[in-house]
Write a structure and sequence with these properties.
Layout: H1 9-14, E1 16-21, E2 42-43, E3 47-48, H2 50-59, E4 64-69, H3 74-83, E5 94-99, H4 113-118, H5 121-127, E6 131-136, E7 140-141, H6 145-155, E8 159-167, E9 175-179, E10 185-190, E11 204-215, H7 216-227, H8 236-247, E12 250-254, E13 270-271, H9 276-285, E14 313-315, E15 317-318, E16 321-322, E17 324-326, E18 329-330, E19 335-337, E20 340-342, E21 345-346, E22 351-352, E23 357-363, E24 368-369, E25 374-380, E26 385-386, E27 391-392, H10 396-402, E28 404-405, E29 411-413, H11 415-424
Parallel strand pairs: 1-4, 1-6, 4-5, 8-12, 14-19, 17-20, 18-21, 19-22, 20-23, 21-23, 22-24, 23-25, 24-26, 25-27, 25-29
Antiparallel strand pairs: 2-3, 6-11, 7-13, 8-11, 9-10, 9-11, 15-16, 28-29
Length: 425
């Protein structure tokens, strides 16, 4: 039953801002984050990881956003300036980039996720909003945030926590919610050895997505109090949420209730592409006949910076020198010259030359692959030139001498690795 006193959705979202935490390095992505923060890592052929959180906010009706950056932020900031510069201040639309700039003290960067908001309290005050939606900028999913914000308002919660429904035996890797039958959080457990089940569903539990809704006046006081606590790590998941669970009203919101699906039967899609294996698999999954993540949905598009490039081109039609792609995604600006491409995802401007074979390859923008190369189960960083005749994916012991080979057999190739390989050959 919707409370008639609660404002309609468009009005509610106009009084809400999204604060995106995008400062994390993402060290498990290894060399992919040597030059860029995890939210700036490429995904899906033409987007960046952060585009999903921002697109969800935009599609949900939010027109006030702030992005807190810290680690190697140039690539991320440049992407924001190029792809997200369409907000108009005269229409009360704002997108602010908030680098860690020692605004509080000359020796103090962002100390934790909560501190990133605390240091920008005056900026959030200027937005003149009633509700703040805290988002992680490093996950792949499609979600209507209005449903979660509306639940927060209707229940009168102090905080509402976005939650994934996960099998109980897998929940030990997450921060877990122990809830009652009304979805009120009784306790917040960080990576418990024996996760609690859900009322009526003991085999599954709720895991935090790192998404929180607060009334700004409440969060503001909470942040100021936390800042004065010398024992706090100034983190939402580690400090603020457990405090509210213990001393206030914390509610869980099920992602299943607000996930944007291509059809009613589709599963709730959420991925943390935080390892090279997970990154490779999530990209390759998009080449499936019916991928779980629908990037073709025009009702809930993923917005991004889109370069002006010509269409992909396939040339040569001879035996062993045929430009073709099967079960693959090929972005604009690519030239597939006499190369066989299977189950692969090629980003903008990739060029592959004759007599080469690519299988389950994720090639980031402007990769060049010279002739007679054979690559299998590979992630290639932006701008890398693969030398003539390189074979990767057939001998993991040899591959590991020059490149990074993961536990699941995916090989990561960067420009520095190619330089060492070339110097030795």
């Amino acid at each position: 039953m919707i409370d008639p006193n609660i404002e309609p959705g468009h009005r509610l979202m106009s009084r809400t801002m999204a604060f995106v935490l995008a400062g994390g390095r993402g060290s498990r992505l290894k060399e992919l984050t040597d030059r860029r923060a995890k939210p700036a890592v490429y995904f899906g052929g033409k987007t960046r990881i952060i585009d999903f959180a921002l697109s969800n906010a935009l599609n949900s009706g939010i027109r006030k956003m702030a992005i807190a950056t810290q680690y190697k932020a140039h690539s991320l900031i440049r992407h924001m300036q190029r792809g997200w510069n369409f907000f108009r201040a005269e229409r009360n639309e704002y997108l602010d980039i908030l680098p860690a700039s020692q605004r509080v003290a000359e020796n103090q960067w962002y100390l934790g996720t909560a501190d990133a908001v605390t240091q920008n309290i005056d900026i959030v005050d200027d937005y003149d909003v009633d509700y703040v939606l805290i988002l992680a900028g490093d996950h792949i999913y499609k979600m209507d945030y209005e449903i979660m914000v509306r639940q927060h308002v209707e229940t009168g919660a102090d905080v509402t926590v976005g939650c994934l429904t996960v099998p109980r035996e897998e929940a030990s890797a997450f921060g877990v919610m122990d809830i009652d039958e009304n979805l009120q959080i009784k306790s917040f457990l960080e990576k418990p050895a024996d996760p609690p089940g859900m009322p009526g569903d003991p085999d599954r539990t709720l895991a935090s997505m790192g998404i929180y809704v607060f009334k700004w006046s409440f969060l503001r006081e909470l942040l100021l109090s936390d800042a004065e606590n010398p024992d706090s790590k100034h983190d939402f998941g580690g400090d603020l949420i457990p405090h509210v669970v213990k001393n206030g009203k914390a509610m869980a919101h099920k992602f299943d209730d607000s996930c944007v699906r291509s059809n009613a039967e589709a599963p709730a899609y959420w991925r943390d592409v935080g390892t090279v294996d997970a990154f490779h698999q999530a990209n390759i999954d998009l080449t499936d006949f019916t991928p779980e993540l629908d990037l073709w949905d025009r009702d809930w598009p993923i917005w991004t910076y889109s370069e002006s490039v010509p269409p992909a081109k396939f040339i040569h039609d001879e035996v062993n020198r045929r430009g073709l792609a099967l079960s693959s995604m090929i972005s604009g600006g690519c030239i597939i010259s006499g190369t066989e491409v299977r189950e692969s995802l090629l980003f903008t401007g990739v060029r592959s030359n004759s007599y080469s074979v690519l299988e389950r390859v994720v090639a980031l923008p402007y990769v060049t692959i010279q002739r007679h190369s054979r690559l299998r189960n590979v992630v290639i960083d932006r701008g890398v030139e693969i030398p003539r005749g390189l074979v990767v994916g057939e001998d993991p012991v040899e591959d590991a001498k020059w490149f990074r080979v993961t536990e699941k057999g995916v090989t990561l190739i960067t420009a520095e690795m190619i330089a060492k390989y070339t110097a030795a050959h």
